[in-house]
Amino acid sequence: MKFVRGFGRFWYDLIIGDDWKIAVAVVVTLALGTGALLAFGVTALVLTPLLGAALMVAFAIAVVIDVRGR
Amino acid sequence: MNAAAWGLGAAVLPAAIVEAVEALTIVLAMGMTRSWRSALLGVAAALVTLAAFTAAAGYALATWLPEAALQLAVGGLLLIFGLQWLRKAILRSSGRKAVHDEDQIFAAEVAAARQAGALKRSGLDWFSFMVSFKGVFLEGVEVVFIVITFGLSAGNLPVAIGAAVLGVLLVLVAGIAVRGPLSKVPENTLKYGVGLLLAGFGTYWAIEGLGIFTESRRSLDWPGADLAILVLVAAWFGLSRLLVRMLRQPTPSPSAPGGRP
């Protein structure tokens, strides 16, 4: 059990790191993009740059929240 | 080599250099204060473990996942991982996080090595062995992660591996020449650059991979195809500079020690 917990902790620290909000921002934005793709049939050439911009906004919000909370 | 392969090499090489410099500092501290033989055996054991891990993870990902799913999973992980690097670079540039200082880290490792008691068994100094193993393995896993995610997404694992090996060799040669921690390597700038590249490529592949949810299960197309990566890296750079400016810690004026003009 200790090994499993340590193994999980290792990967969490490696990928998620100090600020989990960034991972949440990425996952939520990609999920919303998938929704737009499937539900509204937004074309790829429109969706891809829009999602790219959305990821940047989500990252900026996560960083600002993190800094303000310190 | 095409433009994508050069981009791949340009991202993996500095990442490998940065992590190798950090690992070298730890190994040097153990070798110079305790036992070179044990420290180098720790390095060898870590390298063997890393090679096995790279082969297993690379094979499993490349074999089991279809292309779009691979781009989504690997691109998503690369993006989250890269944004952590970018976040730290922004915090360091804005004065909200201490910059990485190899001399300081080396001094701390040397002090810890001197304080630790004798741990000799079977002719090995286990403290040196374990600290070197852990240092090389942990820094190495970050490089392996970048090599696998980048190499698989770009469809060019050999270039990614070659760039990583080159980075490690460059640091090794410089370390042997300098015989001390490589504090002159601009680690913080390199990390900033790697963070931008990981964020740019990760954004491109993660979004491209959403095509796995469509009927065709094919990757989504970006306007301008691969050229979009350049635009993304430039946009991440612009955003990071904006955030650095917004979050910059006000430094007290030298003429007004009390803080007020």
Portion of residues in helices of chain A?
Answer: over 70%
Structural class of chain B: mainly alpha
The global form of chain A is flat
- Compute the number of helices of chain A: 3
- What is the count of helical runs of chain B? 8
- Separation, N- and C-terminal Cα atoms of chain A: 33 Å
Describe the oligomeric state of these chains in a short phrase.
Answer: heterodimer
- Tell me the fraction of residues in β-strands of chain A, as a range: under 5%
Using the CA coordinates, give the radius of gyration of chain B: 21 Å
Average per-residue pLDDT of chain A, rounded, comes to: 89
Question: How far apart are the termini of chain B?
Answer: 57 Å
Tell me about this structure.
The complex is a heterodimer of chains A (70) and B (261). With 70 residues, chain A is mainly alpha-helical. Chain A has one domain. Helix content of chain A is 86%, strand content 0%. In chain A, helix 2 runs antiparallel to helix 3 (44-68). Chain A starts with a helix and ends with a helix. The model of chain A has no long low-confidence stretch (mean pLDDT 89). With 261 residues, chain B is an all-alpha fold. Helices cover 75% and strands 2% of the residues of chain B. Chain B contains 8 helices and 2 strands, in the order H-H-H-H-E-E-H-H-H-H. Chain B has helices at 3-33, 36-64, 67-93, 102-115, 126-154, 157-178, 187-208, 227-247, and strands spanning 120-121, 124-125. In chain B, helix 1 runs parallel beside helix 4 and helix 3 (67-93) runs antiparallel to helix 7. The longest helix of chain B has 31 residues, at 3-33. The termini of chain B are far apart. Classes of the chains: A mainly alpha (70), B mainly alpha (261). The interface between A and B is large, with 32 and 40 residues.
